Amino acid sequence: MPSHDFRAPRLFIDAPLCGGAQIPLDRSQSNYLGNVLRLSNGAPVLLFNGRDGEWQGRLCGHKRASGLEVLARTREQDQAADLVYVFAPLKHARLDYMVQKAVEMGASRLQPVLTRFTQVTRVNLMRMRANVIEAAEQCGILCLADVAEPLSLQGFLEQRAPGRLLVFCDEAAEWSDPAAALRQAGEGAPAGAPSGGIDVLIGPEGGFAEDERALLLNQSQILRLALGPRILRADTAAVAALALVQTLHGDWSARLSHR
What we know:
Helices cover 30% and strands 23% of the residues. The protein is of the alpha/beta class.
């Protein structure tokens, strides 16, 4: 990752960013910067919107910080790797953790899928997006991961582009060397990476039903992996699977195509 100033507070702004722009703060942002962080007028703040790179800004206002002045760009906008994290939703705090870690690991899209044994069928997309923004603010990330509407497992499989690799994390698969299997899946592609992007699928903690597993294994571009000899909780499996993909085909090795 490029060098990043972790001492300056960093704020997502849903507005165009350019030198000299004046951006008003909403009540929650003003309270966070002025009352929580106790920043005064003139204090430096890093700004990003997921489109225009990262900018140096400073607080401005009268008695309290009510706006931001955009000064100069500190980093050019980058592109997200074409890595989609597909998952059966979890409950509240564990879903928050999973979303934050998937963003930190470089997922460009978060796709909830509903299966027979999914624990949670209603997903708070606004809360998911808030966790995406928080993770991006804290970790110096410039691209915001998309948050997709939930789909049934069959609906997700039907709308996938045919050239994408589906990494199906299945506890029933052989686990002798998942890294070797993933490496082999990229052989023959440019730079050793699948050219159509990668979807990483983590199912519910109750596992997939047999008909769902059969449906998955019938996909044309699929790699079935077990993540070692131990059964992992879904939020742990997210980090393990994304780390494996990023190491072999992702932006840890600068191999995964960007969108």
